[in-house]
Write a structure and sequence with these properties.
Blueprint: E1 6-7, H1 25-35, E2 38-43, H2 48-53, E3 56-58, H3 60-69, E4 74-78, H4 81-90, E5 95-97, H5 106-110, H6 113-122, E6 127-131, H7 136-140, E7 144-146, H8 151-156, E8 164-167, H9 170-180, E9 185-186, H10 199-208, E10 213-216, H11 222-226, E11 230-231, H12 234-243, E12 248-252, H13 257-264, E13 269-272, H14 293-302, E14 306-307, H15 311-327, H16 333-336
Parallel strand pairs: 2-3, 2-4, 4-5, 6-7, 6-8, 8-9, 10-11, 10-12, 12-13
Antiparallel strand pairs: 1-14, 5-14
Helix pairs in contact: 1-14, 3-4, 4-15, 12-13
Bound molecules: 1,3-dihydroxyacetonephosphate and iron/sulfur cluster.
Length: 339
Amino acid sequence: MKTETVFPPGQGAMSERDIDPLLDLEAEINRLKREKNAVILAHYYQEGEIQDIADFVGDSLDLSRKAAQTDADMIVFCGVRFMAEVANILSPDKKVVLPDAAAGCSLEDSCQPEAYAAFRAQHPDHIAVNYINSSAEVKAMSDYIVTSSNAEHIINSLPKDKPIIFGPDRHLGAYLNRKTGRDMVLWPGTCIVHEQFSAREITRLKDSHPGALVAAHPECPEGILEVSDHIGSTRSILDFVTTNKAKEFIVATEQNIIHQMQKSAPEKTFYPAPGADGSCNCAQCPFMELNTMEKLYLCMVNEAPFVKLPEDLRVKALRPLERMLELSPPATKSAAAAE
Ligand code: 13P
Ligand code: SF4
């Protein structure tokens, strides 16, 4: 059975019904931030208003580093549950709250701890590398954790003669096999957002915008990556569209990142990559979108939902995360400047 790591608000906690509709949420969140010495960390897939009120917006690796380094008393994690768990693993003396405890991830869901334990047991001589989009229990069974921005670098640093199992994202794993020349055994998970894009529709969109470049996340299937001009983590995609001379981009990742792109390069045009029916609604993560400004305010008032891992699990999950931080390339200039 999965270990409980996220705890809901207790009895008497304030709920959405109690929020005065005239309340200035932005001002209240900023007041609570000062009062509680809190830091708000947000992923690029959060709605624009949440990105704008955050102290730091980043990709999974940037956010892990921030969570490990902060001197705030409370970390308010606007992303999904596994990210808040990572914050608790790396900063156990901080209170880690999140707007919605139900904000999961299809990759994490695809890789239940019991099934992963059996997979690991079938490959006793393999190094176990896992994507950060996994539960704390699966992390605790891993040798190394990686994100999309450091995976290639970390896998290249592992002994060439040692076989590897990689989970839970089979598209990221297959991409890394192609890039590193390894033959990692892959867990069959996928991201429900990135597997929706259509290479045919992207090519069609490109035909009507001949100058547009395609930037894709490696969670996309191979067919999408084949029609892409740049492949990388959310941070790397943002850097690419900001620094490249092209004026138009097709963005094959969660569409809320376009908010940050428009802020960084307002003179450029960004098109969300379409799905098979030609629409772009498929590019919204249903887990990330559970978080709202109201829930962000409430989790700061209630100091819940909060994440607290049992100490033995936390310590086991910490080791592969620490290895990841040690082996990661240094933060990019843009990541360091994003505060
Ligand atoms: P990165 O922000 O590390 O690129 O990951 C994307 C993602 O899917 C987060 O859930
Ligand atoms: Fe998980 Fe995909 Fe949502 Fe990221 S975008 S949190 S990988 S479901």
